[in-house]
């Protein structure tokens, strides 16, 4: 939050105090850096039996921009990654169930499952730029646009085991605890080692917004620092898997929810001016 406030102050300062204005012709830039990424799904985030670990991803972006006075439009080519692990580990209990014979019991689930999602995309950003500042040696910029994302790698894995049991509140030792040794009641242990690469859509669309700073290293070469956010518009779940109800570890179902991408990062890189750069007073 402090970082967002600081960037807003810089934006306002550069906009208000400008006594001269930088004007570009064309610019070729390359920026890169780590990003805090999320693969968001409401059902998973609200599942109390699961813990989510969204790991850092990576982003690199090559962008060619054409300017008219202080406004420009750019198209680029980039690469980005998203990594996530979800854990369903523990002994979970659901009270007061009835088995197939009408006996009252508590359902126990012993789970030790890890799910992973690893995604990589070829990015094609199309952005609108606004130059801010009073010098051709140091200036700010504000970008907004869209990012077309084409999946070039994506896999889902599920590894571990789940055992379901019944605990009966009765003095009869036969009914006290039933597990995989009693298949009549469908109590069993399952082992999983699943890997799939067809869980996601090939194309997705994200919005982009950034506010950054640039400093001249030479007359035509600038150092750029660019905090940004990319927020997914598209559901990345494969079409044939949509509208399937979500089930928690006890088989309780919820309505299908979309899965979307989010990335927040700070890229650092260089921008080279192609053509004239001048300052308007």
What does this structure look like?
This protein has 281 residues and is mainly beta. It has a single domain, classed as Porin (Beta Barrel). Helices cover 7% and strands 65% of the residues. The chain has helices at 2-16, 42-45; strands at residues 21-23, 26-41, 51-68, 71-98, 104-132, 138-167, 177-178, 189-196, 203-216, 221-232, 246-247, 253-254, 259-274, 278-280. The protein has an 8-stranded antiparallel β-barrel. A two-stranded antiparallel sheet has the order 1-14. A hairpin with a 5-residue loop joins strand 11 and strand 12 (253-254). Residues 1-8 and 10-20 have low confidence and may be disordered.
Short description:
This protein is mostly beta strands. The chain has helices at residues 2-16, 42-45; strands spanning 21-23, 26-41, 51-68, 71-98, 104-132, 138-167, 177-178, 189-196, 203-216, 221-232, 246-247, 253-254, 259-274, 278-280.
Question: What's the topology here?
Answer:
Layout: H1 2-16, E1 21-23, E2 26-41, H2 42-45, E3 51-68, E4 71-98, E5 104-132, E6 138-167, E7 177-178, E8 189-196, E9 203-216, E10 221-232, E11 246-247, E12 253-254, E13 259-274, E14 278-280
Antiparallel strand pairs: 1-14, 2-3, 2-13, 3-4, 4-5, 5-6, 6-7, 6-8, 6-9, 9-10, 10-13, 11-12
